[in-house]
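Whether sequence alone determines local backbone shape is best considered at the level of individual chains. In the encoding step, the backbone of a single protein was reduced to a row of integers, each denoting a local shape. For completeness, the protein is quoted in full, as a sequence line and a line of structure tokens.
***
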Amino acid sequence: MALFARSRNRAHEAELQERVHALQSALDQCKGVARQWWSMRVRFTVAVALIAMSAGFALGVYRHSIKQAFVDSAAAVGLASPQGDGAAEADAAFQKGDYAKALRLARPLAEAGEPRAESLLGFAYYRGRGVAQSDSEAAKWFQLAADKGNAASRFTLGVMYGEGRGVPQDFAEAARWYRRAAEQGDAQAQYNLGLAYARGEGVTQNVVDAHVWFNLAAARFPANDSRNRTAAVKNRDTVAGEMTSEQLAEAQKRAREWKPQ
């Protein structure tokens, strides 16, 4: 049985994509695979799956706004975007739907190694905005930006490994990129990493780690993103139901002491 099956409704996906760019929020969903667990693990995994599905996570936190990608990148390298910055101008054009201008500005910057511009090109190819959709090109640009610390690119690269889009499907590699973005404070990556630990996908199943990352995600999703926040809270509470009091205390302590890296 495939857990967390994704919706293929393209019209709905396009509508949500525009909302993501406008609100800088995202939704989450990871493709599952069949596994054999002993009875308690089966109950636990299925419970988490049902919560995510009931929350409507058809398209999932695979959506990251270009604007947020730039913000994440600037924070990661310790730089602010000065007014008149070419990458910021490219982002503004992308947000307005002027993809030709955005790409004209971003491409030379990306080719020069600018991570924000690399991330923009990644999203352009990933969504087919101003260029022909190409998973392989998207993965190439996301990889370049991710290697320079761009959290949004790290997260989306994890998604691509999880789905086998433009790269070989590799759940361990997906979890590795989720972790790198999650450690930077990316709420969507934290949520996906919680799912990975809840299901034992790419990592050893661990209820303490799952609780920690769900808890952090719930705290870091923006106030206007009630859908994601609610799902994180529900999954965290489901995990808590499978934990001993000692495990719960450990998870809560780790969440309190966590700091972005």
